[in-house]
Amino acid sequence: MSPVRAGLDRNRIISRREIEGLIAQGQLILIVEGRVIKADAWLPYHPGGDKAIRHMVGKDATDEVTVLHSVEAKEKAKTFQIGRVEGIWKNFKPPIQGGRFRLPGQENGIDIQEEGTESSDASTRSSSPVFDLSGDVLVKRHTTGTSTPLSSVSSEELSASTRPSFIDAITQKEIDFDYAKYPALDEATQQHIIERYRILHERIKAEGLYQCNYTAYAAEMARYTLLFSLFLITLRAGWYATSGIFLGATWHQLVFTAHDACHIGITHNFQIDTGIAILIADFIGGLSMGWWKRSHNVHHIVTNSPEHDPDIQHLPFFAVSHRFFDSLFSTYHNWILKYDSFATTMVQMQHYLYYPILLFGRFNLYVQSWMFLAMGYSPKKGIARWHRTIEIIGQCFFWYWFGYLVVYRSIPTAWDRFSFIMLSHMITAPLHAQITLSHFAMSTADLGVHESFPQRMLRTTMDVDCPQWLDFFHGGLQFQAIHHLYPRIPRHNLRRTQKLVQAFCKEVDIPYALFGFVDGSKQVIGRLGEVGRQAAMLAKCQQAIVESSDYYMH
Ligand code: HEM
């Protein structure tokens, strides 16, 4: 890797137009604390993956880079500095998100894209529908308030109407989120939020909240050891179903520590924490730490964005926004999330299928892990280059002890093996519920590139209220909003940090979403039900169109 070339004046002021030109040429330019960073040479080495950087191109990435990195990593980013910018940087929309940029000398033609995606829930709300449903009948609504049944609409008008106009009609009234509750997106307001957020970060550091509570981890270890021992004892005793439950409970609990370690939130040493994460995820759990990091890092940066966040891309089973009806292109998977007839059927029933599907969530994670390792997505250079090899060894180890020694050798009958496998995997379902709970009911709108990082995190993430003695069950994931604001704070300090964040939210007037587990679950089921209802209406509309075309054709 060659950082920036020798003799370059790193403090040269680079104009906005010049930066636009560099990005148009395909360079990975981002801004960190007024420094212009060119990350091209670093990309193959980056432990955070390529997409994390690509989503920051053209943007001020100061807050994302600060909270996702160690101090040393942030210092390293400075070695890729090619210049500086003056004043407050106005974000471009990154190319990966559809931003368009003019090459040098290409002054006319394409407009600078700096306002962000317009295909949001918010923009959908503002467009006026042409068609609507009156009961089960598709009608054309007139501005006068009257409506005409579909059978009276001319065939030209029907064929001219596009699919999105139906989606608009259907989703017009179903938008759940009250955006007026959030601060305005003008520069002064957002800068104020950013300023207070950074001050809060300094306070968090000063109060020692980044220091890991190792005693709390000793208690965690004792719990894991107890659960794992109970799994072995009951297995030995021939109580296979009970044994499966204890193994599942061990996995369920261990995942929380893997999550902490993946965020380098235990020792804060990249290699040690990654080693802990690989031990738990691959060797003990059979899941790929690298797969999880790759998707989770992106999730932290583009939280709840239907096109970009893999954590809400669950078609054909779930759609948390009507925008999925448009068969979106996933920039994470690099494929189209097809909203086909199977998805149409599943999404209409998604609020009933939510919990049953979650029971099988862990099986999906194996598939994702193997795909990740087979594709060789881990960085091949730099500090993370050894991950893939050790993860493949971990997978072999897991299938040896779990698949061969436990399931094949220790359990005698096919039925006992089946019930052991199902129970051990299904018992981890609360974890999947917990992960989805924090985001599924929250906003999925794209409010553009001028929304600050803290506001976006708080708009897209909810916390779960629970008594302190139950913290072990939620494993820190109940403080998801706090965690999204400061992902590397050790888990056992999140409850203390919550108080500070609540005060910050009051100060900057951003609502802090906090629900009990039951209420939060109701919110999620409600959202899934609402989108499911929209899916049913869309299906009816499409059916009506097909029937009316037949009518006109004959
Ligand atoms: C040239 C610029 C960059 C450099 C030199 C850099 C360097 C590093 C390094 C050394 C690590 C290892 C963990 C650590 O020590 O903290 C890391 C991890 C990470 N980086 Fe960057 N980074 C850069 C840009 C970015 C950007 C723009 C983002 C997106 C916001 C990003 C997101 C991440 C994430 C999410 C991780 C965690 C990786 C993991 O899963 O362990 N990085 N980066």
Automatic annotation (TrEMBL):
Top-level EC class as recorded in UniProt: oxidoreductase
A Pfam family assignment = FA_desaturase
Q: How does it sit in the membrane?
A: Multi-pass membrane protein
Q: Where does it live in the cell?
A: Membrane
Instruction: Give EC number(s), comma-separated.
Output: 1.14.19.18
Which residue ranges does the record assign to the Cytochrome b5 heme-binding domain? 11-86
User: Where would you find the membrane-spanning parts of this chain?
Assistant: 352-377, 389-411
SUPFAM superfamilies documented for this protein: Cytochrome b5-like heme/steroid binding domain
- Report the pathway entry: Sphingolipid metabolism; Lipid metabolism; sphingolipid metabolism
Q: Which GO terms describe its biological process?
A: sphingolipid metabolic process
Keyword list (alphabetical) reads: Heme, Iron, Lipid metabolism, Membrane, Metal-binding, Oxidoreductase, Sphingolipid metabolism, Transmembrane, Transmembrane helix
GO-annotated cellular components: membrane
Annotated InterPro entries: Cyt_B5-like_heme/steroid-bd, Cyt_B5-like_heme/steroid_sf, FA_desaturase_dom, Fatty_acid_desaturase
Example of a GO MF term: oxidoreductase activity, acting on paired donors, with oxidation of a pair of donors resulting in the reduction of molecular oxygen to two molecules of water
Q: Which PANTHER family match?
A: DELTA 8-(E)-SPHINGOLIPID DESATURASE, FATTY ACID DESATURASE 2
The record's similarity note reads: Belongs to the fatty acid desaturase type 1 family.
Protein name per the record: Delta 8-(E)-sphingolipid desaturase
Q: Per the UniProt entry, what species is this protein from, by scientific name?
A: Gomphillus americanus
Recall the taxonomic lineage recorded for the source organism.
Eukaryota, Fungi, Dikarya, Ascomycota, Pezizomycotina
